[in-house]
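Preliminary data (for renewal application), glyoxylic acid complex.
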Amino acid sequence: MNVQTHTVNSLLAAINDIGRDNTRGGYSRPVYSPAETTLREWFIAEAQARSLEVSTDVNGIIWAWWDMPGSPKDEASRRGALVTGSHLDSVPGGGAFDGPLGVASALAAFDVLAAREAEGSLQRNRALALTVFPEEEGSRFGVACLGSRLLTGAIDPAKALNLRDADGNTFADVASSNGLDPARMGRDDAALASIGDFIELHVEQGRGLNTEEHTDAAGRGPAVAIGSSILGHGRWRLSFSGQGNHAGTTLMVDRADPMVAAAQLVVKVREVARTQADARATVGRLEPVPGGTNVIASRVDLWLDVRHPDDAVTAMLVEKIHGQAQKIAAFEGCSVALTEESLSGTVNFDPTLTRALEKSVHRREPTAPLLPTGAGHDAGVLAAEVPSGMIYVRNPSGISHSPEEYVEHHDAAAGVAALADVLEDLL
Ligand code: GLV
Ligand code: MN
Ligand code: MN
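Predicted structure:
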Protein backbone atom coordinates (compact mmCIF):
# COMPACT_ATOMS: atom_id res chain seq x y z
CA MET A 1 0.00 0.00 0.00
CA ASN A 2 1.24 3.53 -0.76
CA VAL A 3 2.09 5.47 2.38
CA GLN A 4 -0.13 8.54 2.71
CA THR A 5 -0.27 10.97 5.61
CA HIS A 6 -3.86 12.10 5.67
CA THR A 7 -5.66 12.82 8.91
CA VAL A 8 -9.30 11.99 9.25
CA ASN A 9 -10.05 15.71 9.33
CA SER A 10 -8.25 16.45 6.08
CA LEU A 11 -10.14 13.55 4.48
CA LEU A 12 -13.49 14.81 5.76
CA ALA A 13 -12.61 18.37 4.69
CA ALA A 14 -12.42 17.16 1.08
CA ILE A 15 -16.09 16.10 1.16
CA ASN A 16 -17.35 18.94 3.33
CA ASP A 17 -19.35 20.57 0.54
CA ILE A 18 -20.82 17.43 -1.00
CA GLY A 19 -24.55 16.92 -0.49
CA ARG A 20 -25.15 19.98 1.68
CA ASP A 21 -28.87 20.56 2.12
CA ASN A 22 -29.58 24.27 2.08
CA THR A 23 -33.25 23.73 2.88
CA ARG A 24 -33.03 21.34 5.83
CA GLY A 25 -29.50 22.22 6.93
CA GLY A 26 -26.74 19.63 7.23
CA TYR A 27 -26.40 16.98 4.53
CA SER A 28 -28.83 14.97 2.42
CA ARG A 29 -26.93 12.16 0.76
CA PRO A 30 -29.45 9.44 -0.13
CA VAL A 31 -28.03 6.29 -1.69
CA TYR A 32 -27.25 6.60 -5.42
CA SER A 33 -28.10 10.32 -5.43
CA PRO A 34 -25.57 12.57 -7.18
CA ALA A 35 -24.14 13.47 -3.75
CA GLU A 36 -23.68 9.89 -2.56
CA THR A 37 -22.30 8.90 -5.96
CA THR A 38 -19.74 11.70 -5.71
CA LEU A 39 -18.78 10.41 -2.25
CA ARG A 40 -18.36 6.89 -3.62
CA GLU A 41 -16.14 8.27 -6.39
CA TRP A 42 -14.15 10.19 -3.78
CA PHE A 43 -13.71 7.02 -1.76
CA ILE A 44 -12.62 4.99 -4.79
CA ALA A 45 -10.06 7.67 -5.74
CA GLU A 46 -8.69 7.71 -2.17
CA ALA A 47 -8.47 3.91 -2.12
CA GLN A 48 -6.74 3.80 -5.51
CA ALA A 49 -4.29 6.51 -4.43
CA ARG A 50 -3.25 4.02 -1.73
CA SER A 51 -2.92 1.19 -4.35
CA LEU A 52 -5.83 -0.68 -2.78
CA GLU A 53 -7.68 -2.89 -5.25
CA VAL A 54 -11.24 -1.63 -5.54
CA SER A 55 -14.32 -3.53 -6.66
CA THR A 56 -18.08 -3.19 -6.22
CA ASP A 57 -19.87 -6.42 -5.41
CA VAL A 58 -23.25 -7.71 -6.60
CA ASN A 59 -25.05 -5.84 -3.81
CA GLY A 60 -23.34 -2.49 -4.43
CA ILE A 61 -20.91 -2.77 -1.51
CA ILE A 62 -17.52 -1.24 -2.35
CA TRP A 63 -14.47 -3.24 -1.28
CA ALA A 64 -10.94 -1.81 -1.19
CA TRP A 65 -8.42 -4.62 -0.69
CA TRP A 66 -4.99 -4.42 0.91
CA ASP A 67 -3.83 -7.91 0.04
CA MET A 68 -0.99 -9.83 1.62
CA PRO A 69 2.27 -9.12 -0.23
CA GLY A 70 2.62 -11.33 -3.33
CA SER A 71 -0.82 -12.92 -2.83
CA PRO A 72 -2.83 -13.84 -5.97
CA LYS A 73 -5.72 -11.46 -5.02
CA ASP A 74 -8.26 -14.25 -5.27
CA GLU A 75 -11.08 -15.52 -3.07
CA ALA A 76 -8.89 -18.13 -1.38
CA SER A 77 -6.21 -15.66 -0.29
CA ARG A 78 -8.82 -13.15 0.88
CA ARG A 79 -10.82 -15.66 2.95
CA GLY A 80 -11.09 -14.64 6.62
CA ALA A 81 -9.74 -11.11 6.06
CA LEU A 82 -9.94 -8.33 8.59
CA VAL A 83 -12.55 -5.87 7.33
CA THR A 84 -13.48 -2.39 8.48
CA GLY A 85 -15.87 0.17 7.04
CA SER A 86 -19.06 2.13 7.29
CA HIS A 87 -21.36 4.07 4.95
CA LEU A 88 -21.53 7.36 3.03
CA ASP A 89 -25.29 7.86 2.71
CA SER A 90 -27.12 10.08 5.20
CA VAL A 91 -30.54 10.74 6.65
CA PRO A 92 -32.30 13.87 5.27
CA GLY A 93 -30.58 16.88 6.84
CA GLY A 94 -28.06 14.70 8.68
CA GLY A 95 -24.67 15.47 10.18
CA ALA A 96 -21.21 15.25 8.64
CA PHE A 97 -19.97 12.29 10.69
CA ASP A 98 -22.58 9.50 10.74
CA GLY A 99 -20.97 7.09 8.26
CA PRO A 100 -18.22 9.22 6.69
CA LEU A 101 -16.29 9.33 9.99
CA GLY A 102 -15.95 5.52 9.87
CA VAL A 103 -14.90 5.51 6.22
CA ALA A 104 -12.39 8.37 6.59
CA SER A 105 -11.03 6.93 9.86
CA ALA A 106 -10.51 3.57 8.17
CA LEU A 107 -8.54 5.24 5.34
CA ALA A 108 -6.47 7.16 7.91
CA ALA A 109 -5.92 4.00 9.98
CA PHE A 110 -4.74 2.17 6.84
CA ASP A 111 -2.25 5.06 6.38
CA VAL A 112 -0.97 4.55 9.92
CA LEU A 113 -0.57 0.82 9.28
CA ALA A 114 1.15 1.42 5.91
CA ALA A 115 3.67 3.67 7.65
CA ARG A 116 4.25 0.98 10.31
CA GLU A 117 4.70 -1.63 7.57
CA ALA A 118 7.17 0.63 5.73
CA GLU A 119 9.28 0.96 8.89
CA GLY A 120 9.09 -2.81 9.45
CA SER A 121 7.05 -2.78 12.65
CA LEU A 122 3.81 -4.29 11.27
CA GLN A 123 3.35 -8.04 11.06
CA ARG A 124 0.39 -9.16 8.95
CA ASN A 125 -1.10 -12.62 8.73
CA ARG A 126 -4.14 -11.84 6.64
CA ALA A 127 -5.58 -9.45 4.08
CA LEU A 128 -7.32 -6.24 5.08
CA ALA A 129 -10.29 -4.64 3.37
CA LEU A 130 -12.23 -1.43 3.69
CA THR A 131 -15.92 -1.57 2.80
CA VAL A 132 -18.55 1.08 2.04
CA PHE A 133 -22.15 -0.10 2.47
CA PRO A 134 -25.04 1.37 0.44
CA GLU A 135 -28.34 2.58 1.96
CA GLU A 136 -27.31 2.18 5.62
CA GLU A 137 -29.86 4.78 6.67
CA GLY A 138 -32.74 3.46 4.60
CA SER A 139 -33.50 7.09 3.86
CA ARG A 140 -34.26 6.44 0.19
CA PHE A 141 -35.83 2.95 0.06
CA GLY A 142 -37.07 2.66 3.65
CA VAL A 143 -35.05 -0.35 4.85
CA ALA A 144 -31.95 0.51 6.87
CA CYS A 145 -28.70 -1.41 6.25
CA LEU A 146 -30.05 -2.61 2.90
CA GLY A 147 -26.57 -3.48 1.55
CA SER A 148 -25.55 -5.62 4.53
CA ARG A 149 -29.04 -7.18 4.70
CA LEU A 150 -28.71 -8.23 1.06
CA LEU A 151 -25.17 -9.53 1.62
CA THR A 152 -26.24 -11.69 4.57
CA GLY A 153 -29.61 -12.72 3.16
CA ALA A 154 -31.40 -10.91 6.01
CA ILE A 155 -33.76 -9.48 3.38
CA ASP A 156 -35.29 -11.42 0.50
CA PRO A 157 -33.81 -9.84 -2.66
CA ALA A 158 -37.27 -9.91 -4.30
CA LYS A 159 -38.60 -7.73 -1.46
CA ALA A 160 -35.59 -5.40 -1.70
CA LEU A 161 -35.89 -5.02 -5.47
CA ASN A 162 -39.55 -4.00 -5.15
CA LEU A 163 -38.86 -1.23 -2.63
CA ARG A 164 -39.69 2.21 -4.00
CA ASP A 165 -38.25 5.64 -3.28
CA ALA A 166 -40.39 8.77 -2.81
CA ASP A 167 -40.48 9.32 -6.60
CA GLY A 168 -41.78 5.80 -7.24
CA ASN A 169 -38.49 4.40 -8.62
CA THR A 170 -37.94 0.77 -7.69
CA PHE A 171 -34.69 -0.29 -6.05
CA ALA A 172 -34.29 -2.71 -8.98
CA ASP A 173 -34.36 0.15 -11.50
CA VAL A 174 -32.07 2.39 -9.46
CA ALA A 175 -29.62 -0.47 -8.87
CA SER A 176 -29.57 -1.27 -12.62
CA SER A 177 -28.95 2.30 -13.59
CA ASN A 178 -26.02 2.26 -11.16
CA GLY A 179 -24.39 -0.67 -12.92
CA LEU A 180 -25.73 -3.51 -10.73
CA ASP A 181 -27.53 -6.61 -11.97
CA PRO A 182 -30.75 -7.06 -9.94
CA ALA A 183 -30.83 -10.77 -10.83
CA ARG A 184 -27.53 -11.31 -9.00
CA MET A 185 -28.40 -9.44 -5.82
CA GLY A 186 -28.80 -11.33 -2.56
CA ARG A 187 -26.84 -13.43 -0.10
CA ASP A 188 -23.20 -13.59 -1.16
CA ASP A 189 -21.43 -16.51 0.52
CA ALA A 190 -18.08 -15.78 -1.11
CA ALA A 191 -18.10 -12.18 0.13
CA LEU A 192 -19.16 -13.32 3.61
CA ALA A 193 -16.37 -15.90 3.69
CA SER A 194 -13.89 -13.11 3.01
CA ILE A 195 -14.84 -11.42 6.30
CA GLY A 196 -12.99 -12.99 9.23
CA ASP A 197 -13.81 -10.10 11.58
CA PHE A 198 -15.65 -6.86 10.91
CA ILE A 199 -14.94 -3.63 12.80
CA GLU A 200 -16.96 -0.43 12.31
CA LEU A 201 -15.84 2.89 13.74
CA HIS A 202 -18.72 5.32 14.19
CA VAL A 203 -19.53 8.65 15.77
CA GLU A 204 -21.23 8.08 19.15
CA GLN A 205 -24.81 9.15 18.60
CA GLY A 206 -25.91 10.05 22.10
CA ARG A 207 -24.44 11.33 25.34
CA GLY A 208 -22.87 7.95 26.12
CA LEU A 209 -19.36 9.33 26.68
CA ASN A 210 -20.44 12.61 28.25
CA THR A 211 -22.11 11.21 31.36
CA GLU A 212 -20.77 11.69 34.90
CA GLU A 213 -19.98 8.00 35.00
CA HIS A 214 -17.36 8.45 32.27
CA THR A 215 -16.00 11.94 32.99
CA ASP A 216 -13.98 13.42 35.86
CA ALA A 217 -14.80 16.61 37.79
CA ALA A 218 -13.22 18.70 35.03
CA GLY A 219 -15.42 16.99 32.42
CA ARG A 220 -12.50 15.00 30.99
CA GLY A 221 -13.05 11.45 29.88
CA PRO A 222 -12.18 8.95 27.18
CA ALA A 223 -12.54 9.99 23.53
CA VAL A 224 -13.56 6.51 22.44
CA ALA A 225 -15.71 3.60 23.57
CA ILE A 226 -16.16 -0.01 22.51
CA GLY A 227 -19.60 -1.19 21.37
CA SER A 228 -21.37 -3.79 23.49
CA SER A 229 -24.84 -4.08 21.93
CA ILE A 230 -27.36 -2.55 19.52
CA LEU A 231 -30.93 -1.98 20.59
CA GLY A 232 -33.52 -4.03 18.67
CA HIS A 233 -35.42 -1.79 16.29
CA GLY A 234 -37.94 -1.76 13.51
CA ARG A 235 -39.95 0.42 11.17
CA TRP A 236 -43.66 0.22 10.46
CA ARG A 237 -45.91 2.18 8.10
CA LEU A 238 -49.39 3.13 9.28
CA SER A 239 -51.73 4.32 6.52
CA PHE A 240 -54.84 6.14 7.68
CA SER A 241 -57.50 6.41 4.94
CA GLY A 242 -60.44 8.81 5.04
CA GLN A 243 -62.43 10.97 2.67
CA GLY A 244 -60.48 13.46 0.59
CA ASN A 245 -62.52 16.63 0.28
CA HIS A 246 -62.68 20.43 0.01
CA ALA A 247 -61.36 22.42 3.00
CA GLY A 248 -63.94 25.17 2.53
CA THR A 249 -67.12 23.36 1.66
CA THR A 250 -66.93 20.34 3.97
CA LEU A 251 -68.55 21.03 7.35
CA MET A 252 -66.50 19.94 10.37
CA VAL A 253 -69.16 17.35 11.27
CA ASP A 254 -69.05 15.83 7.81
CA ARG A 255 -65.36 15.00 7.77
CA ALA A 256 -63.42 11.73 7.83
CA ASP A 257 -60.01 13.36 8.05
CA PRO A 258 -57.06 10.96 8.30
CA MET A 259 -54.76 13.82 9.37
CA VAL A 260 -56.78 14.27 12.55
CA ALA A 261 -56.47 10.53 13.23
CA ALA A 262 -52.71 10.57 12.52
CA ALA A 263 -52.18 13.54 14.83
CA GLN A 264 -53.87 11.72 17.72
CA LEU A 265 -51.78 8.64 17.10
CA VAL A 266 -48.51 10.61 17.23
CA VAL A 267 -49.38 11.65 20.80
CA LYS A 268 -50.43 8.07 21.69
CA VAL A 269 -47.09 6.72 20.41
CA ARG A 270 -45.28 8.77 23.05
CA GLU A 271 -47.73 7.69 25.73
CA VAL A 272 -47.35 3.98 24.89
CA ALA A 273 -43.53 4.19 24.71
CA ARG A 274 -43.42 5.83 28.14
CA THR A 275 -45.00 2.75 29.72
CA GLN A 276 -41.72 0.84 29.25
CA ALA A 277 -38.33 1.85 30.62
CA ASP A 278 -35.74 1.78 27.81
CA ALA A 279 -38.36 1.98 25.03
CA ARG A 280 -38.06 4.53 22.25
CA ALA A 281 -40.81 5.21 19.75
CA THR A 282 -40.78 7.93 17.13
CA VAL A 283 -42.90 9.28 14.31
CA GLY A 284 -40.40 11.28 12.27
CA ARG A 285 -42.13 11.18 8.91
CA LEU A 286 -45.73 11.75 7.94
CA GLU A 287 -47.07 12.18 4.41
CA PRO A 288 -50.57 13.44 3.63
CA VAL A 289 -51.98 12.47 0.23
CA PRO A 290 -52.48 14.52 -1.87
CA GLY A 291 -50.96 17.17 0.43
CA GLY A 292 -52.65 20.51 -0.29
CA THR A 293 -53.32 23.38 2.11
CA ASN A 294 -56.96 23.60 1.05
CA VAL A 295 -57.47 19.84 0.73
CA ILE A 296 -58.68 17.41 3.39
CA ALA A 297 -56.28 14.50 2.89
CA SER A 298 -57.66 11.21 1.59
CA ARG A 299 -54.79 9.29 3.17
CA VAL A 300 -52.00 9.94 5.61
CA ASP A 301 -49.02 7.62 5.80
CA LEU A 302 -46.88 7.80 8.88
CA TRP A 303 -43.78 5.86 9.74
CA LEU A 304 -43.15 4.48 13.18
CA ASP A 305 -39.69 3.65 14.55
CA VAL A 306 -39.80 1.51 17.73
CA ARG A 307 -36.77 0.28 19.72
CA HIS A 308 -36.34 -1.77 22.90
CA PRO A 309 -33.67 -4.16 24.23
CA ASP A 310 -36.26 -6.95 24.54
CA ASP A 311 -37.66 -7.90 21.11
CA ALA A 312 -40.87 -9.22 22.72
CA VAL A 313 -41.45 -5.79 24.28
CA THR A 314 -40.91 -4.13 20.89
CA ALA A 315 -43.57 -6.42 19.40
CA MET A 316 -45.94 -5.69 22.30
CA LEU A 317 -45.47 -1.92 21.91
CA VAL A 318 -46.22 -2.08 18.19
CA GLU A 319 -49.32 -4.18 18.87
CA LYS A 320 -50.54 -1.62 21.44
CA ILE A 321 -49.89 1.27 19.04
CA HIS A 322 -51.73 -0.60 16.29
CA GLY A 323 -54.68 -1.14 18.65
CA GLN A 324 -54.75 2.57 19.47
CA ALA A 325 -54.55 3.43 15.75
CA GLN A 326 -57.58 1.22 15.02
CA LYS A 327 -59.59 2.83 17.84
CA ILE A 328 -58.70 6.35 16.72
CA ALA A 329 -59.39 5.55 13.06
CA ALA A 330 -62.84 4.15 13.88
CA PHE A 331 -63.70 7.21 16.00
CA GLU A 332 -62.70 9.52 13.11
CA GLY A 333 -64.60 7.53 10.46
CA CYS A 334 -61.33 6.38 8.90
CA SER A 335 -59.54 3.05 8.47
CA VAL A 336 -55.93 2.15 9.15
CA ALA A 337 -53.48 -0.45 7.80
CA LEU A 338 -50.17 -1.42 9.41
CA THR A 339 -47.20 -2.74 7.39
CA GLU A 340 -43.88 -3.88 8.87
CA GLU A 341 -41.07 -2.49 6.73
CA SER A 342 -38.08 -3.85 8.66
CA LEU A 343 -37.20 -5.47 11.97
CA SER A 344 -33.83 -6.15 13.60
CA GLY A 345 -33.48 -7.93 16.92
CA THR A 346 -31.17 -6.72 19.68
CA VAL A 347 -27.55 -7.56 18.87
CA ASN A 348 -24.86 -8.34 21.43
CA PHE A 349 -21.46 -8.10 19.80
CA ASP A 350 -19.14 -11.11 19.78
CA PRO A 351 -17.67 -11.30 23.31
CA THR A 352 -14.23 -12.58 22.26
CA LEU A 353 -13.80 -9.86 19.64
CA THR A 354 -15.16 -7.24 22.06
CA ARG A 355 -12.58 -8.26 24.68
CA ALA A 356 -9.83 -8.03 22.04
CA LEU A 357 -11.04 -4.53 21.09
CA GLU A 358 -11.04 -3.47 24.76
CA LYS A 359 -7.50 -4.77 25.23
CA SER A 360 -6.19 -2.85 22.19
CA VAL A 361 -8.11 0.36 22.89
CA HIS A 362 -7.16 0.40 26.60
CA ARG A 363 -3.46 0.76 25.77
CA ARG A 364 -4.09 4.42 24.84
CA GLU A 365 -7.46 5.00 26.49
CA PRO A 366 -7.44 2.96 29.71
CA THR A 367 -10.89 4.18 30.73
CA ALA A 368 -12.65 3.63 27.37
CA PRO A 369 -15.96 2.03 28.40
CA LEU A 370 -18.17 -0.59 26.84
CA LEU A 371 -21.19 1.25 25.47
CA PRO A 372 -24.56 0.04 24.22
CA THR A 373 -26.20 2.04 21.43
CA GLY A 374 -29.72 2.79 20.33
CA ALA A 375 -28.59 3.32 16.73
CA GLY A 376 -28.55 0.62 14.06
CA HIS A 377 -25.39 -0.23 12.09
CA ASP A 378 -24.21 -2.56 9.33
CA ALA A 379 -21.93 -4.12 11.98
CA GLY A 380 -25.13 -5.21 13.76
CA VAL A 381 -26.47 -6.95 10.65
CA LEU A 382 -23.10 -8.58 9.92
CA ALA A 383 -22.89 -9.81 13.54
CA ALA A 384 -25.38 -12.58 12.65
CA GLU A 385 -22.77 -14.06 10.29
CA VAL A 386 -19.28 -12.98 11.36
CA PRO A 387 -17.63 -11.70 14.56
CA SER A 388 -18.28 -7.96 14.52
CA GLY A 389 -17.37 -5.11 16.81
CA MET A 390 -17.57 -1.34 17.01
CA ILE A 391 -15.54 1.64 18.19
CA TYR A 392 -17.39 4.88 19.01
CA VAL A 393 -15.86 8.34 18.94
CA ARG A 394 -17.12 10.94 21.43
CA ASN A 395 -19.79 13.35 20.23
CA PRO A 396 -19.73 16.39 22.53
CA SER A 397 -23.14 17.60 21.33
CA GLY A 398 -24.72 14.21 22.06
CA ILE A 399 -26.83 14.97 18.97
CA SER A 400 -27.02 12.88 15.81
CA HIS A 401 -29.17 12.62 12.67
CA SER A 402 -29.00 16.40 12.80
CA PRO A 403 -26.62 19.08 11.52
CA GLU A 404 -25.46 19.56 15.13
CA GLU A 405 -23.79 16.14 15.26
CA TYR A 406 -20.15 16.85 16.07
CA VAL A 407 -16.71 15.35 16.62
CA GLU A 408 -13.65 17.28 17.87
CA HIS A 409 -10.49 16.97 15.76
CA HIS A 410 -8.44 15.46 18.58
CA ASP A 411 -11.18 12.90 19.31
CA ALA A 412 -11.28 11.91 15.63
CA ALA A 413 -7.49 11.43 15.80
CA ALA A 414 -7.94 9.29 18.93
CA GLY A 415 -10.49 7.20 17.01
CA VAL A 416 -8.02 6.59 14.17
CA ALA A 417 -5.28 5.65 16.65
CA ALA A 418 -7.65 3.22 18.39
CA LEU A 419 -8.79 1.69 15.08
CA ALA A 420 -5.20 1.34 13.83
CA ASP A 421 -4.18 -0.42 17.06
CA VAL A 422 -7.20 -2.72 16.93
CA LEU A 423 -6.52 -3.64 13.29
CA GLU A 424 -2.82 -4.20 13.94
CA ASP A 425 -3.52 -6.45 16.93
CA LEU A 426 -6.09 -8.48 14.98
CA LEU A 427 -3.93 -8.89 11.88
C1 GLV B 1 -29.56 4.42 11.81
O1 GLV B 1 -28.74 5.29 12.07
C2 GLV B 1 -30.62 4.15 12.73
O2 GLV B 1 -30.34 3.82 13.90
O3 GLV B 1 -31.78 4.31 12.37
MN1 MN C 1 -27.52 7.11 11.06
MN1 MN D 1 -24.36 5.34 10.68
